[in-house]
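During the no-cost extension, the postdoctoral fellow (Dr. R.K.) reprocessed legacy sequence entries with the updated structure-token encoder. One reprocessed record is reproduced below for audit purposes.
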Amino acid sequence: MQAAVYRPVHEAVLRELRSSNARRILDVGCGTGNLTMRMLEALRPELLAGCDFSAGMVEQAAAKTRAVGWVQGDALRLPVRDGAVDAVVSTESFHWFPDHNAALAEFHRVLGPGGRVLVALINPRIHLTSRAAHAASRVVGEPAYWPTRDELEARLARAGFRIGRRRRILRAAGLLLPTVLTVGVRD
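Re-encoded structure tokens follow.
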């Protein structure tokens, strides 16, 4: 199940990173580090760091390798210096960030000129779906917000990014969960 759901997203991210020649990569919301490990093996970047808010997730990720800089951190206050990375990746985690605009401002801050932000998540087509999913997530005690494609792109533009590409990702349950990889470029 893991491969059917996440592998297509990981493949899309790896293709985009290869085409951009990113050598310093930050994976924000890395969880247990599955994609981070794939980036390490497939891309051999000069610097690779995985960052997650959950200490437990970082602990599980760190048990996999010491070749990655694993750090517990908040997407709204990244423990990374200005302009330190070529790419910021956020897959299947952006919806958990409590302030999308603040997270995007942080992504912009840590990226060097020409750097790319890659955000992959379920993008509802209409705002009503986003609002309904948000309301349901709050009822179950796990508040999350999935922006529409247009809303995400508008937020990226306000944060200082130019939209480089938007790619729909086909995966298991793709019709119910329309996943899009959106790439923003820092000028």
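DSSP finds six helices and seven strands in the chain. The domain at 2-186 is CATH 3.40.50.150 (Rossmann fold). The remaining legacy entries will be reprocessed before the final report is submitted.
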